[in-house]
Design brief:
By secondary structure, this protein is mainly α. Helices cover 28% and strands 0% of the residues. The longest helix has 9 residues, at 56-64. The protein starts with 37 loop residues before the first helix and ends with a helix. It comes from Pseudomonas abyssi.
């Protein structure tokens, strides 16, 4: 697996490029109920930070196996 391309659509996860289903602007989003670990946020490529939300699948994948997830998506 590779990181989503730089400059990709903000509606896509920066890791898997899947739809992130972000609805934060509406005031009701799945991310309000799911804690996103700081260590996962630190893996988001600099050019995509604060521009694209991580999808729920990737948050859960990181939570269940932080080292494995980081190894798959670590910047090269």
């Amino acid at each position: 697996m590779q990181l989503a391309p730089a400059g990709s659509d903000a509606a896509r996860c920066p890791f898997c490029a899947g739809a992130n289903a972000c609805a934060a602007e509406t005031g009701s989003c799945w991310c309000f109920d799911l804690s996103v670990p700081e260590a996962l946020l630190a893996l988001v490529p600099t050019e995509q930070r604060h521009r694209a939300c991580i999808c729920q699948h990737c948050v859960r994948a990181f939570t269940s196996d932080p080292n494995g997830f980081a190894e798959r998506y670590r910047l090269r």
